[in-house]
Structure to design on (71 residues):
């Protein structure tokens, strides 16, 4: 093979490897994003549930106190 043919083959392999690596990186980045979004959605739901339970507990306690004060 000539120097030009070898250079062309190396360029082709390099381009193919770079394309494969870019596709793999994109796939992994998309998976990481989906995972992060799921984690954030779960964390948000957990925070809302905790705040709701805390607010209910405090409201119930305030109601009991108010009733006791009124009597």
């Amino acid at each position: 093979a000539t120097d030009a043919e070898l250079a062309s083959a190396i360029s082709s392999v390099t381009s193919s490897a770079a394309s494969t690596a870019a596709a793999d990186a994109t796939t992994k980045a998309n998976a990481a994003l989906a995972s992060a979004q799921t984690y954030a959605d779960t964390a948000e739901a957990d925070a809302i549930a905790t705040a709701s339970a805390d607010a209910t507990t405090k409201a119930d306690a305030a109601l009991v106190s108010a009733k006791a004060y009124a009597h």
